[in-house]
Amino acid sequence: MRRSIYACMLITVLSSAAAAQTERRELGPHVHGSGTLNIVIEGNNVSMDLSAPANDILGFEHQPSTPEHEKILASAKAALEQPLTLIELPVAAGCKVETANVTFNAAEPAATAAPAKPAGESQHADFDVDYALTCAAPNKITQLSFAYFKQFAGAQKLAVTIVSDKGQTQYEVTRDKPVLTLK
Ligand SMILES: [Zn+2]
Fold it and tell me: Could you list the residue range(s) of the whole structural domain that residue 53 is in?
């Protein structure tokens, strides 16, 4: 009797661990400090897609497990919902935010999830943020200034791709060189 209960519990634990494994999005190995930003300028519509390790944004990569973590997550989400304060565009471009969708991809907190993983096996989480903007004069987007690095202490660089009617161009902005001037 005891044995069958144990077997049953074991199966439950194993299957929930497997479920957690498949539910987690395949992130691939991300590099802490390093995020990506894709910007597409199409007529008056500007879309931005930011992806960054949660470590850059929060300093941790799991669901909040303390009130302190909750606070950090809430304030990070609030900051991410204001793209024009993170990525400053020339005022002359007349851009405004239409939508901002912030997604935090992280496993459940250790307390409620499957037994703690052995030390050394790291778990990763990241942020996926999509913005839709409209700009009255998108041709005036000649420079982007990344206050992002001031806001998020863990962020070191962003690989930026800009797609417009002029083609596709790659840039890199860093904590030391946070201003991007369009070629
Ligand atoms: Zn990570």
Answer: 30-181
In the chain, what percentage of residues exceed pLDDT 90?
74
Total tally of structural domains belonging to the chain: 1
Instruction: State the distance from the centre of ligand 1 to the C-alpha of 122, rounded, in angstroms.
Output: 8
Residue predicted with more confidence, 152 or 4: 152
Between the CA of 53 and the centroid of ligand 1 the distance, in Å, is 6
The structure's pTM equals: 0.78
Task: Compute, in angstroms, the gap from residue 151 CA to the centroid of ligand 1.
Answer: 19
Burial of residue 37, with CB atoms counted within 10 A of its CB: 0-12 exposed, 13-18 middle, 19 or more buried: buried
Asked if residue 98 is part of any domain, the answer here is: yes
Maximum Cα interatomic distance, the chain, rounded to a whole number of Å: 75
Query: In this structure, is residue 145 part of a structural domain?
Result: yes
